[in-house]
Amino acid sequence: MPNLSWRHQALIETLISRGPLKEDEFLSIFAVVSGKKQDSREREFDDYLLNINKELTFVRFELRAFTNQYDGEVYYGVVNNVADEQAKLGIKYTVPQIAFYKGIIEAIAQDTTASGCITNIDALNIRLENQNGIGSQSPSGTSTVPYAFKNFTISQKDKTIDELVQDRWLCSIPDGKIGLGVRSFLDLRSWFRSNDVTSCEICNEAGVKAELCQKEDCNTSIHHYCLKKKFSQRMA
Question: What span, in angstroms and rounded, lies between the C-alpha atoms of 19 and 88?
């Protein structure tokens, strides 16, 4: 990235090495790197991000702001705009683990209540052989399921959930439930859209955790934090 200064590159490397960062933390790092004071950095910050993304476009990456839908906190992270979720997980996780993760995010995204989570028990009961694209056709025309999928045990699933939570692909929610982690919100924007997950009518991001419209034949949703922000603006 010859057109970026060491300051720009330091911000990119920080996000890549440490993963998604909360807005306050990222802004603090930016202040140190840029040497800008709190009250004079807003325009400088926008310019930095614009210049970074101009260069990242050539390698199909993007520095992106996104929101954790469970608490409304804004994060910043670097995302590969080409690789799918399997490629992004493939370095560390096995094929059965990736299929299990895919089953979890599908179950959460397809929840008609938009609660943004499933119970730990429901996650452990996900059958890997039900995932699209798994298995192959035998000469007789019947579908065969790989041995590794048939023998992916409950204990292996439980361990995988712990690893995915630790790596922030998933998150733990009280009452024995699990939801999507900040890395999933960062990386799966295109997946949500291609799988027709209902979008928030205010911010147009996927309504994984959202308030659903109560009117009959209405298929809209609004994030709680978007609704709160909308009303606060009206009150101002």
Answer: 13
From 206, 177, 220, select the one nearest 67 (Cα to Cα). 206
| The predicted structure's pLDDT at residue 143 | 53
The CA-atom distances, in angstroms, between 36 and each of 22, 44, 48, 76 are 19, 8, 12, 19
* 144 beta partners: 136
Output 214 or 19, whichever has higher pLDDT.
19
Cα-based torsion angle of the residue sequence 209, 214, 219, 225 in order, rounded to the nearest 10 degrees: -30
119-152: buried (b, 16+ CB within 10 Å) or exposed (e) per residue?
A: ebeebeebebeebeebbeeeeeeeeeebeebeeb
3-state secondary structure of 138: coil
| CA dist., res. 105 & res. 193, Å (int) | 13
